Amino acid sequence: MKKIITGQFSDAIPPITDGVAFVAQNYYHYLNLKYGSSYLIGPDGPKDADEASSVIRFKSYEIPGFHPYRVGVPLLGTFRSALDSIDFDIIHSHTPFTAGHEAFRIAKRKNIPIIGTFHSKYKDDFAKALKSMTLSEQVVKYVVHYYEKMDQVWVPNEQTKEVLFSYGYQGNVEIVHNGTEMELLDEKSHTFLREKGRKEHGIGDDEILLLYVGQMREEKNLFFLINSIQQMHKEHLPIKVIFIGAGRDEDELKGRVHQKGLDSIFTFTGLIRDRKVLQSYFAMSDLYTFPSLYDNSSLTMKEAATCALPTIVIQGSTTSEGIIDEGNGFLIEHNVSSFVSKVKYLIEHPDIIKKAGLGAKNTLYISYESIVDEVYERYIKIIHDKTKK
């Protein structure tokens, strides 16, 4: 097996806990573990004192109103000299912006291949941030131009490819799925964590626990989720709700829950970084709710699948790709009535929840270790093809 030196460049790396950060982190981790030396390059911020020297950070500043995201300034000589001294074989960019610019600079300087993964709906992000469709369109043109410079472009699923094409990109695109580093829970561990967690949170055997894990942002469609839960509560459905995560709209979401009189059934845990603790919440839950119309690919749906926990998603959303209603998850229309009706139906038919959960475990779960095995083989071929030119 040929050992290679790889660089994962991202504008979001731990301690940021979004999906892109986890992708870059897991590529870096498993490539280091099995296939040579890998480096993780991204913005500075709070970090562990014992962080590995293979994590290279550039100076950055928090973006007002977009906590925990940061804008980078990778111009200092120490940062660039550190990168320039590494004999990379291949570069992988997970962003078209600051870290992505550095990724392309290194690849061009060393004449080595660069892969770009298109992760996010940048047009939506910038339309909201800039409050200008004209400026947003200019950003989209920049994004397309960036990916046109890549040796290969990857996306996590078919619908994300369609998003990139809708921006005007016309090149080839490869689908490389996301996964999770969480391991499948065996039945004994699942039962133990479920019973322990529900007892600690005062959740009765006859109550249905709805879970959401992710950023507390309006884009995640969480106000729609709260409105739906309010109607479930009005109809006296036996539900409890746990929201895990943090974000700029957290206080407003908590205020909305209080305003609607839902404090007695709601718990906000804040951000949970411990992955085993997080998995215990998936184990104790009955339904995972992910109503986002924004996300391209949800890692948390795969994390839920480790505990045979099925997800409710909105039909036609990008994250609904691969979901078969009642087969490995549940599809709803984007309205409160559809959501409430689905949960009511599932409360009356718990066997269908169990069946869909097993379907999720069998069809949605994929480990990052196995994904990186595929990634390594792709890297080797791309390196070989580049050297022949």
Radius of gyration: 21 Å
CATH classification class of the largest domain: Alpha Beta
Tell me the structural class: alpha/beta
Assess the beta-strand content as a share of residues.
Answer: 15-25%
Q: How is the largest sheet built, in terms of strand order?
A: 3-2-1-6-7-8-9
Portion in helices: 40-55%
Mean pLDDT figure: 93
Largest sheet, in brief, is: 7 strands, parallel
Provide the number of structural domains. Answer: 2
* Termini separation: 23 Å
- The ordered H/E elements are EHEEEEHEHEHHEHEHEHEHEHEHEEHHH
Number of DSSP E strands: 15
Secondary-structure arrangement, i.e. CATH architecture of the largest domain: 3-Layer(aba) Sandwich
Q: Catalogue the unreliable spans.
A: none
* CATH fold-level name of the largest domain: Rossmann fold
CATH superfamily of the largest domain: Glycogen Phosphorylase B
Query: Per the principal axes of the C-alpha atoms, what is the gross shape?
Result: globular
What can you tell me about this protein's structure?
- With 389 residues, the chain is an alpha/beta fold.
- It has 2 domains: 4-179 and 367-388, 3-Layer(aba) Sandwich (Rossmann fold); 187-363, 3-Layer(aba) Sandwich (Rossmann fold).
- Helix content is 44%, strand content 17%.
- The chain is built from 14 helices and 15 strands.
- The protein has helices at residues 19-34, 77-84, 98-110, 122-130, 133-148, 158-166, 187-200, 222-234, 250-259, 275-284, 299-305, 336-348, 350-363, 368-388, and strands at 4-9, 36-43, 55-58, 60-62, 70-72, 90-93, 114-117, 152-155, 174-175, 208-213, 239-244, 266-270, 287-289, 311-314, 330-332.
- The chain has a 7-stranded parallel sheet with strand order 3-2-1-6-7-8-9, with helices on both faces. A 6-stranded parallel sheet has the order 12-11-10-13-14-15, with helices on both faces. A two-stranded antiparallel ribbon has the order 4-5.
- α1 (19-34) packs across α14 (368-388), α7 (187-200) crosses α10 and α8 (222-234) packs across α12 (336-348).
- The longest helix is centred in the last third of the chain and has 21 residues, at 368-388.
